[in-house]
Write a structure and sequence with these properties.
Elements (H helix, E strand, L loop, with lengths): L5 E5 L1 H10 L6 H10 L4 E5 L9 H10 L4 E5 L3 H10 L3 E4 L19 H13 L3 E6 L3 H10 L3 E5 L1 H5 L2 H20 L3 E5 L7 H5 L4 E6 L1 H10 L1 H15 L2
Parallel strand pairs: 1-2, 1-8, 2-3, 3-4, 4-5, 5-6, 6-7, 7-8
Helix pairs in contact: 2-3, 2-11, 6-8, 10-11
This protein binds pyridoxine-5'-phosphate.
Length: about 240
């Protein structure tokens, strides 16, 4: 029996559009509430160091408004740790962050940063926050996650999304193998980045995955079909992939 796959909707790019003009519109919290009504199981937001999209005020309002779990994406910094501990979201996903990147361009090097990450993971876990690491589908990174004793890893699907043909098929196998290795070690596997209506089904069919986090495509598609239908269609594709 395969389990239902959860959908986390990332609302960062509603804030990107708002911030292009300043002011309050469009409001990412309103988008989060519509996503929740339309089939999202959780909301994901990345408070970046430069606050280029989501702001501290958005996190305050999300925490105050959401009836579904909030997954805070955060860099492994003292500032973000303090913010996470203050808000105590359901989950925190630790992501690599470089100021000059356009989006999160690769997984966290958990294998090379054990000593930096261990105290941050421990403080978050002690506060009852479910910690996840955003990593490449690489056995070395899963082994590092096991050593860090995180309950969740999120596998980076960016390479899968951008490759084609045989290379994409090989990357899909890496994702499936990484999800299986995580599950074998008692770690819940999530995945995300670059997923669309056209490429989501093979990823959603990986039986060990428990959650997908999807943002940019859904928010872009909302321009054409509306946010509710965009989320609902993704939800339906994910459900169909599980039979
Ligand atoms: N998961 C993580 C950890 C991310 O950093 C992002 C992008 O912010 C996503 C999922 C969603 O990626 P996309 O916006 O390409 O769907």
């Amino acid at each position: 029996m395969t389990t239902r796959l959860r959908l986390g909707v990332n609302i960062d790019h509603v804030a990107t559009v708002r911030n292009a003009r300043g002011g309050d519109n469009p409001d990412p919290v309103r988008a989060a509430l519509i996503a929740a009504e339309s089939g999202a199981d959780g909301i994901t937001a990345h408070l970046r160091e430069d606050r280029r999209h989501i702001t501290d005020g958005d996190i305050d309002r999300l925490v105050g408004s959401l009836a579904i779990p909030l997954n805070l994406e955060m860099a492994a910094t003292a500032e973000m740790l303090e913010i996470a501990l203050r808000h105590r979201p359901h989950a925190a996903c630790i992501v690599p962050e470089r100021r000059e990147e356009r989006t999160t361009e690769g997984g966290l090097n958990a294998a090379g940063q054990h000593d930096h990450l261990a105290p941050i993971v421990a403080r978050l876990a002690d506060a009852g926050i479910r910690v996840s690491l955003f990593i490449e589908p690489d056995p070395r990174q899963i082994e590092a996650a096991v050593r860090l004793r995180v309950p969740v890893v999120e596998l980076h699907t960016g390479a899968y999304a951008h490759l084609e043909g045989e290379l994409r098929a090989a990357e899909l196998r890496r994702l499936a193998d990484a999800a299986a290795l995580a599950a074998k070690n008692g770690i819940e596997a999530h995945a995300g980045h670059g997923l669309t209506f056209d490429n989501v089904v093979p990823v959603a069919a990986i039986p060990q995955l428990a959650e997908l986090n999807i943002g940019h495509f859904l928010i872009g598609e909302a321009i054409f079909i509306g946010l509710g239908p965009s989320v609902a269609r993704m939800r339906a594709l994910m459900d169909e992939s599980r039979g």
